[in-house]
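Because discrete structure vocabularies remain unfamiliar, we turn briefly to a single example record, giving the amino acid sequence and backbone structure tokens:
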Amino acid sequence: MSMFGKKYIQEKWLDKFCLLNVAKTKERGLAPHKPILLLCIIDMIEDRTIITPWVQYSPELFFRFQCYWEIVFERQKNRLLISVEY
């Protein structure tokens, strides 16, 4: 695949991330839960922790979600919720 092709695919997926239907509040703005969960799943697919089309709630998934959450917590002040339906 050419570099143009890779860049196009990356931009296409970035656009999809930007269009996610996320919760929004006046005090906190957009909730980052869905994008963070998707990033965790992508990471786990890349390192072959997830090898099936079905993603199960697991300690590994929760740990990654928690690690990403630490990055955005100061800006959001939202609670760490991975158990809600997405």
Notes: The CA atoms of residues 22 and 39 lie 15 Å apart. The chain has one domain: 21-86. Residues 59-76 form the longest helix (18 residues). Residues 21-86 form one domain.
